[in-house]
Amino acid sequence: MTEPLLEVTDLVVHYPVKREAPWRPRRFVHAVNGVSFSIGRGETLALVGESGCGKSTVGKTIMRFQRPTGGTVRFAGRDVHALDAGSLRRLRRDLQFVFQDPYASLPSRLSVGEIIAEPLIIHGVGTATSRRDRVRELLRLVGLRPELISRYPHEFSGGQRQRVGIARALALEPSLLILDEPVSALDVSVQAQVVNLLGRLQSELGLSYLFVAHDLAVVRQLAHRVAVMYLGRIVEHGSTAEVFDRARHPYTQALLSAVPISDPAERGRNLRIRLQGDLPDPLDLPSGCAFRTRCWQATDRCAAELPELIASSGTTAACHYAGEPARLPERTAS
After folding, report:
1. Helix 188-205 and helix 158-170: axis angle, to 10°?
2. pLDDT for residue 291 is more than 70
3. Which of 53, 96, 262, 328 could make an SS bond with 174 (beta carbons 3.0 to 4.6 A apart)?
4. Cβ contact 249:19 at 8 Å
5. Please, which residues have CB within 8 angstroms of residue 282's CB and are 6 or more apart in sequence?
6. Are residues 36 and 72 in contact, defined by beta-carbon separation less than 8 angstroms?
């Protein structure tokens, strides 16, 4: 079996909270709690879940923007968090990040050409002439006209700015891109264009993606596999088709029920699962299964035991009742 390009094992990230008083025990925000997954070459894994579940924290920890509390991140066989500064610098040529907000992620005082050329300058790639040629090539690659090279970010639309961000990430010819909700700040029509661009680039360049998102409709177009996160843990994992067609975890079922349906004939049949209760405090997670406070299937066992990921019906789900026939709640028309 081919070694995965990226392998994350038992990743834990806890953030200390300032003490209310010196004699009180220190408390921690449990952002990520034992997350494990791998990504092969040319593959897209989508990491999905509602805001605050820890999915962006996973991406930033892989990039070593922050240190983990526990666990390991291995890229191309190397432990990312064990590398010295020189080795990490070389690794960054193969591992790049595309930020969520195309308005905030581009420096306003640099031209588009300077922004895209910056990674080449930092890593000492090429001459001034060859870098300029490379920038023009990258602009064409992401669907922008090369003559826009001297313009500034404020002269571009949101979708065009995100294309510039993608071009900057591709400058050093990486093998893996971490895409942190790259289309969530864009209009729906522009989202489709950027998703199609990402699909084309993956096909042409053989890229791997970790696609962090909360929009399942977008995920279905691009991802080969889906991992669903809830309060710092992966609760379901499988191929995109398996997760969408045979979801076993109640949280995944609720997420899928909220996906808009474009076909008017089918729209009336879309009965949405409306979760009851509030999201637990990540400073004080409930015992056992963290989703039990909002789950219609919860029993005393769910409060007493933390469920492990169990293979069932084509997906792997962290639910004590994943292997049993689904017991769905009452639904309402969306």
Report:
1. 20
2. yes
3. 96
4. no
5. 29, 30, 31, 52, 231, 232
6. no
Q: Is the distance from CB of 149 to CB of 202 less than 8 angstroms?
A: no
Please, which pLDDT band fits residue 61 given cuts at 50, 70 and 90? very high
More confident residue, 39 or 101: 39
Cα distances from 241 to residues 2, 60, 78, 127, 206, in angstroms, run 23, 27, 31, 46, 22
Backbone angles phi, psi at 228, to 5 degrees: -100, 125
Q: Which superfamily does CATH assign the domain made up of 6-94+174-333 to?
A: P-loop containing nucleotide triphosphate hydrolases (3.40.50.300)
Nearest CA to 7 out of 117, 65, 81, 69 is that of 81
The 3-state secondary structure of 198-254 reads HHHHHHHHCCEEEEEECCHHHHHHHCCEEEEEECCEEEEEEEHHHHHHCCCCHHHHH
DSSP reduced 3-state for 65: coil
Which residues are 229's β-sheet partners? 234
Instruction: Locate all alpha helices (DSSP H) within the chain, ordered by sequence.
Output: 55-62, 85-91, 112-122, 128-141, 158-170, 188-205, 216-222, 240-245, 250-257, 264-267, 300-304
